[in-house]
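This part of the workshop introduces the protein records we will be handling. A learned vocabulary of local backbone shapes supplies the integers on the structure line. Getting from the letters to the tokens is the skill we practise here. As an example, a complete record with its sequence and its structure tokens follows.
=====
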Amino acid sequence: MSRYRTPDTMTTPADIRESVPVFEDVRYLNTGASGPSPRRIVEAAQREIEAHEWGAASDPGPYPHAFGLYEDVRADVADFLGADTGEIALTQSTTDGITRIAGGIEWEPGDTIVRTDLEHPAGVLPWKRLERQGCEVRVVPTTDGRLDREAYRDAVADAKLVCLSALTWNYGTSLPVSELVAEAHDAGAYVLVDAVQVPGQTPLDVTEWGADAVAMASHKWMLGVWGAGFLYVDSDVIDEFHPGQIGYRSVEDPEADEYDLKPGAARFEIGTTNPGPYAALSASIDLLEAVGLDTVDAHIHDLAERFVDGVPTDRLYSPEAPESGLVTVRVDDAESTVERLREEYGVVVRSLPGPAGAVRASLHVYNTPEDVDRLLTGLRETGW
């Protein structure tokens, strides 16, 4: 345990729920967008900000203090993901991590990027920019959150990079990442995975996918605060990436006449960032490990099954056998349904831009069977 992490006495899902003030007002079921943090996670961020702004101002100084924190947090994240510390960069979000990888490749007109039609805008917009520079973007079609494997193999045949989600944000389906990575590597392509919906839901050894880079963040299922993203870059390929933007944290000696990039993933870090969210990230890892990720995973699965069992089959977009805590249903008017669920039933979910009429519930460790039942009641009376 690093000096920035605190012992945690919360060991059950009920303990976590009790520590999240939002549940005093609503039944929050929107963690797939952003998860409300337990009090002690917010307090960890606050303590670090105070220590940095006040205690470290004279000794050891704000920069050495922050650099020590970054080093500790990289190690904490690496342990959590089954990676080496040198394979972790601290970013500000998943979008930030994806964009840094996009900027770390030397692109030429005619280069091909492959993505699925399930990607969040974070995995779409960087490639739109590259299209303006003459690159080609191929979009692999899906059906009900399932990838067309033959179309995928054809698309990656001469690609330079593949970008895909490990867990789809719109259907809650789990893609066969290891198999997709292997097929892309056989074709000579890099693979960048958007895994923001995975850590905090289920145990993850990021190296088992074999991906070249994986972008994640702590403000969803990890119960952290906004501003602490993290990027895994496989040590076998790190020297093949040259960040498009660099700063004093990217290089060995920022005052040297000629710069040398740091040898690990930290070359993707740029400059001054608030240390508070990263202290909260380490605290959230402590909390999840205290409860146990197997416990979290089982709790989520039980709630997702309870929800799916109450949804008419013709109203279900997600799999009948849930693959995650993300469950999407079809209603007649998504925006109106979401608003009425919040105002009349005290339930917070969200609509999605697609598929048509989609409303998504996110079921996490702090949710209860009563939350699920209240949502089902509201949907029956407002959306179906």
Observations:
- The longest strand covers residues 112-116.
- Residues 48 and 276 are 5 Å apart (CA to CA).
- The longest helix spans residues 62-81.
- Residues 1-6 have pLDDT under 50 and may be disordered.
